[in-house]
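User: What would this chain look like folded?
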Amino acid sequence: MRKQERQWTGVTKGGTLGQWMLIRMLSIVNPTLLYFPLALIVPFYMLFNKKEYGAIYEYFRTQWGYFGWKAFSKTYQNHFIFGQCMLDKFAVYAGKKNFFNVKITGKEEAEKMLHDGRGIVVTTSHVGNFELLGYLSQLDLPADKNPFSTFQAQNRDFHIMFGQETETILSNRVRSLSDHGISTVHASDNMTHLFAIRESLLNGGIVDVTCDRFTGSDKSITCDFLNGRADFPTSTFALAAHCNTHVLSVFCMKESRNCYHIYFKIIDADEVIQSNEKINCYVKSYVRGIEEMLGKYPEQWFNFYKFWK
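Assistant: Here's the prediction, encoded as structure tokens.
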């Protein structure tokens, strides 16, 4: 598959007015009350969005070996959970700060990266509710439940990189994150965003980047991935190798109606190997982490297009 097809240009649906109305509604009602009508809407969404439906159906058939009714059922679950994740995100925009329970695995290992002052690249993917991860830092959580409490306590520069979105989403992102010392960096096709990221990393900053979709650069490594082969972009990992930073992978997985489980996984590479080999190690370790997470939560794969070669 051509890499240009992997440069996903989709944005959150609903339009500016629809998204504004949803935020207003969620400021009044519990988001779980909307899960029931969502369950009824999902079949119609699948019917009228055949390309996205087909990509996920093929994911369950080819990558997991499901057929017939089971593949269809899993595809429905995938769309339903994705809709819940979107409602949860908009609930945060609406000010629901004490709605979520959080479990964390691996935070202690991740915090060891803070001792030497080097920059940290936090890699995420379109698995689980990756965007909610940034907003959890602003919720009224005790330190042991806040995934970034120790990182923030050091007053380091903290940036999260996002792709294109609607004006409603962009403005709410900036408002929700900036009050808590987190800046947003918008990915651009001309790759100028990499200069801001590089400067932050060289100064010991922390940068959160989704690394499973192409943005601008076509440079990639082909990896074995869930019973298939897929290209993964290397630009972020090349920057991490160039700046000699730590690399960390983080997942935010929905476990129940108001509970998320955060997993920290260190992505390691031998410090003495050459740059190209280090990049390969980073990418393959990142891909193994996604495989492991999808083994636990196969329905939370949210790349709604043909991903594999």
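The mean pLDDT is 83. If you want, I can go into more detail on any region.
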